[in-house]
From TrEMBL:
Its EC number is 2.7.13.3. InterPro entries: HATPase_C_sf, HATPase_dom, His_kinase_dom, HisK_dim/P_dom, HisK_dim/P_sf, PAS, PAS-like_dom_sf, PAS_fold. This is Sensory histidine kinase/phosphatase NtrB. Keywords: ATP-binding, Hydrolase, Kinase, Nitrogen fixation, Nucleotide-binding, Phosphoprotein, Transferase, Two-component regulatory system. It catalyses: ATP + protein L-histidine = ADP + protein N-phospho-L-histidine. Gene3D superfamilies: 1.10.287.130, Histidine kinase-like ATPase, C-terminal domain, PAS domain. One of its GO terms (molecular function) is ATP binding. Residues 136-356 form the Histidine kinase domain. It comes from Solimicrobium silvestre. The keyword Oxidoreductase does not apply. GO terms for biological process: regulation of DNA-templated transcription.
């Protein structure tokens, strides 16, 4: 079906629009609808709207109500399931038209807030499961490590004098590797410790402390811009944990900017704002801190972007994969959450923490 002049204006809309005939078949779909449904207008034309989805009976019911003039327009949130595709979470608006050929218009808007909430719920569920797994695994590793190290020390003491020097190299390898694993285990267990030094936290003092640390390590080729809302109030928290969280994010970003640092145009931005009526972990807060740490690096690989807060997941050779896990856990202990959006040229970590 060709795009007709009578519907051409609908292509200018950002929301998806479908126009149906009296049998519920699609007579027109604007460009946004083609994009949403991943299908061309030619393929959509004359298909029954309800047949596009596995649970299309709900759409059919609303369409029949529209034909019977039970409403002039009706709004409803829907989850539309399609074979081979992610479910579409949309806010639908059914409108009755004064036109016998095309009596019903449907507008579909992606329910961004619901999608965001579902993603956050999944992240929290995964985070909790990972915490339990890592904690149990760390305890299982920690117990025998002490025995291995102690045995190596005793063995070193019993080495015969004439071979002590060369054999001590082997016992020292065992002791040093046991110490290294012990440090790793301690880092795995660290996120489970609750904030222990609670006081008034000024987020800009946190950012300035992190800024000075990053600039000391990367003095050339990196610029850190500050965009602060100085009206943000202090809040109760563990300042050391929050410094560590922001530092882990900023340090990862600085390392990802290695090529741009060599070119001299690497940039980090610390941006603070207040957001109102925000939902975090299914709880509604009147006010929240909205801290953004933005870099102009290459972006996070699509392979790991959904798993970057999982333990031992790293996008850098030699990385431990614990920095962002620690950051997320420390922020969650302040009833907040860290989100991330990334594409080549811009990576934005967003830290949300409720304010009094």
């Amino acid at each position: 079906m060709e795009r007709t002049a009578s519907f051409a204006g609908l292509d200018l809309l950002a929301s998806s629009v479908l126009v149906l005939d009296g049998q519920g078949c699609i007579r027109y779909a604007n460009a946004a609808a083609e994009d949403l449904l991943k299908t061309s207008l030619k393929s959509l034309s004359n298909q029954k709207m309800a047949d596009l989805f596995m649970n299309g009976q709900e759409l059919q019911h609303l369409f029949e109500q529209a034909l019977e003039y039970q409403f002039a327009d009706k709004r409803q949130d829907l989850i539309l399931e399609r074979a081979g595709h992610e479910p579409l979470q949309v806010h639908s608006i059914f409108t009755v038209l004064d036109n016998s050929d095309t009596p019903v218009l449907i507008e579909l808007r992606e329910n961004v807030q619901q999608i965001k909430q579902d993603r956050e719920d999944r992240m929290l569920d995964h985070s909790q499961a990972n915490k339990e797994l890592i904690r149990n695994l760390a305890h299982e590793i920690k117990n025998p490590l002490g025995g291995i190290r102690g045995a190596a020390q005793l063995l070193e003491m019993e080495l015969p004098e004439r071979h002590a020097k060369e054999l001590r190299e082997y016992t020292q390898v065992i002791i040093k590797e046991a110490d290294r694993l012990q440090t790793l285990v301690d880092r795995l267990l660290a996120p489970h410790r609750l904030p222990h030094i609670v006081g008034d936290v000024n987020i800009h003092e946190v950012c300035e402390r992190v800024r000075s640390l990053i600039m000391a390590e990367f003095p050339l080729g990196l610029t850190i811009q500050r965009d602060y809302d100085l009206s943000i109030p202090d809040f109760r928290g563990d300042v050391e944990q929050l410094i560590q969280s922001v530092l882990n994010i900023a340090h990862n970003a600085a390392q990802a900017l290695a090529e741009r640092i060599e070119l001299g145009d690497a940039e980090l931005i610390f941006k603070t704002r207040v957001v109102r009526q925000v939902t975090i972990a299914k709880i509604r807060y009147r006010l929240a801190l909205d801290l953004h740490i933005i870099d102009n690096g290459p972006g996070i690989s699509a392979d790991i972007v959904d798993r970057i807060f999982f333990p031992l997941v790293s996008g850098r050779d030699g990385g431990s994969g614990l920095g962002l896990t620690l950051a997320q856990t420390f922020v969650q202990q302040h009833l907040g959450v860290i989100e991330c959006e990334s594409r080549p040229g811009v990576t934005d970590f967003r830290v949300l923490i409720p304010l009094p």
